[in-house]
Amino acid sequence: MTDEDLAKMIIAHEGNVPYAYKDSLGYWTIGVGFLIDKEKGGQLFPEEIEFILLNRIEKIKTDLNKNLSWFKDLDVVRQSILIDMAFNLGVRGLLKFTNTLDLIKNKKYTEASKAMLESLWAKQVKGRAVKLSTMMKDGK
Question: In this predicted model, what pLDDT tens digit does every residue of 6-38 receive, in sequence order?
Fold first, then answer.
């Protein structure tokens, strides 16, 4: 039996659920029966977390390129700021920052940094917003 065949068999037995759920014994589980419940000794391994994170970053980059035609023209620091914000807010949430995004598009970075700090998001994430706003203004 190949590893691919084995994977198909395990999926057939375990299912494949794209969100956290409680298994038949009440323990938190995700995906193909991956136990993540700390009480039962479950966890994601560091390399799994890194893989998921890098995969999500690539997905966000793709979505931002699709939704903001000018995203690719930004320097890497300002692209990173928008990716970080989209990671926190979701791309749809970030796209609601129409005034801030318009300022960024027009390279008005100081004004964009101020607009970032005047948002409800900034009140919620506090230090993260201050750091990203400073990066937006300074480009580093």
Answer: 999 999 999 999 999 999 999 999 999 999 999
**Same domain for 93 and 115?**
yes
Structural domain for 16, as ranges: 3-40
Q: Spell 8-34 as b/e; 16+ CB within 10 A means b.
A: eeeeeeeeeeeeeeebeeebbbbbeeb
> What pTM does this model have?
0.89
The residue among 47, 45, 40, 46 whose CA lies nearest residue 23 is 40
Q: What is the Cβ-side half-sphere exposure of residue 26, based on CA atoms within 13 angstroms?
A: 1
User: Structural domain tally of the chain?
Assistant: 2
